[in-house]
Design goal:
Elements lengths: L3 H11 L13 E4 L5 E4 L1 H7 L3 H7 L18 H11 L3 E9 L5 E10 L7 E6 L4 H7 L3 H35 L2 H24 L11 E3 L1 H13 L7 E5 L7 E3 L1 H18 L6 E8 L3 E3 L8 E2 L2 E7 L6 H4 L17 H11 L3 E7 L4 E8 L7
Parallel strand pairs: 3-10, 7-9
Antiparallel strand pairs: 1-2, 1-5, 3-4, 4-5, 6-8, 9-12, 10-11, 12-14, 13-14
Helix pairs in contact: 6-7, 8-9, 9-11
């Protein structure tokens, strides 16, 4: 009796299906339990500038500089694989500088995923568009930020003083004005109040003091935000809360966190149809997620994920890439400061906020990643 069918069945039980991976446009490697490269797709061959047969025979030894990486991050690909093995689960290292022995260096997101039903097998995906691009958009270089914030604070102070005088003068004129002229004085007061409110919101960007942070229950924060919304701007909408009760405390400032999620919740409520609007707020723990901003040697774990999901139409294509820039808004009455303030406050916590469209039918997702108070994260 031939042993070939038995061998094929045994191989099918131990080796994952990988044919589709060879067609993916991003570099993909498949490692067996001994960290040997079993499959390298065409994109990986291009990335490493060598063929699959050579990668399977020699691995990346000799191709990558396994010493200090460009930018001082100090993570070799082998060390990242070892970390994924220790965690025995998915592992993501964003904004990683992979230095090649030839002198070339590439910034990439290294994503490692265990293969289901194949213990010890690991899939490595290398995405050369690093999430640090998003970090760079949200965190302005410190020198330029201090200058811009100083100017904004000075202008806010200087503008608010004459506004008070203008409003007071308009109120005095209204006392002796005719009905027609009183409408004009009321218009002056209304516009002065609108400008003052705008300046008050801008002043949120001028505070460069470090936030006072401590352990906070993220679910207590979210429950407070949801209750506020249901009493006002989200009244009548279908609100779903899907929380992971096992989450550790977040290391944060309660008032700032309330402001972050209140802004995101309000943004979602304004985006959906009042008759069929649905907003879902979820929490989850993403083990192994770490990022490092450009030029920083230490990676910060951001395992706590909060998502605000709505069934609205999403941002127009021309705005999606600038969602967190100040004064960018898709609504005619919007100031474009709400999401910019969210990005600033999340950045002050050392976290990250992302915008995405996913699912079928597509839904808008604002995802906030934060550090926890648990040093083991």
């Amino acid at each position: 009796m031939s042993l070939l069918p038995l061998r094929r069945r045994a191989q099918a039980r131990t080796q994952p299906q990988i044919d589709l991976m060879t067609m993916l446009p991003v570099p993909v490697l498949v490692l067996d339990p001994g960290d040997r490269i079993v499959v390298a797709n065409a994109a990986a061959e291009t990335f490493f500038n060598t063929g699959q047969a050579m990668l399977r025979e020699r691995g990346w030894t000799g191709l990558l500089d396994n010493g200090a990486q460009a930018g001082g991050l100090g993570d070799s690909l082998g060390e990242l694989v070892a970390a994924a093995r220790r965690l025995d689960g998915g592992y993501s290292a964003y904004d990683t500088e992979l230095a090649f022995s030839s002198g070339r260096s590439v910034r990439a997101d290294v994503l490692m995923t265990p293969v289901p039903d194949a213990p010890g097998w690991l899939i490595i995906t290398l995405q050369t568009r690093a999430v640090a691009t998003l970090v760079d958009r949200q965190l302005v270089p410190q020198g330029a930020a201090r200058s811009a914030i100083g100017i904004a604070a000075m202008l806010a102070h200087e503008i608010k003083n004459p506004l008070s005088g203008i409003r007071g003068a308009a109120q005095l004129l209204a006392q002796d004005a005719s009905d027609g002229n009183r409408e004009l004085t009321d218009l002056i007061c209304t516009e002065v109040d609108r400008v003052r409110t705008l300046i008050d919101r801008m002043e949120g960007f001028t505070d460069t003091r470090s936030l006072s942070r401590g352990p906070e229950n993220i679910h207590a924060v979210l429950n407070h935000v949801v209750r506020l919304g249901q009493q006002g701007f989200a009244r009548g909408l279908n609100i779903r809360e899907r929380y992971d009760p096992s989450l550790p405390p977040v290391i944060g400032n309660r008032d700032a966190l309330v402001q972050v999620f209140l802004n995101l919740f309000k943004n979602a409520a304004e985006a959906v149809d009042p008759a069929s609007g649905e907003i879902t707020i979820t929490t989850a723990y993403r083990h192994g997620l770490r990022i490092a901003a450009a030029g920083q040697a230490q990676r910060t774990p951001l395992p706590l994920e909060v998502s605000v999901i709505d069934n609205g139409p999403g941002a127009p294509a021309g705005i999606a890439d600038h969602m967190f820039d100040a004064f960018v808004s898709s609504r005619p009455s919007g100031t474009g400061l709400g999401l910019a303030l969210v990005a600033k406050l999340v950045g002050d916590h050392g976290g990250l906020v992302e915008y995405d469209r996913q699912g079928m039918p597509p839904r808008t997702v604002f995802r906030v990643l934060l550090p926890t108070a648990d040093p083991r994260s």
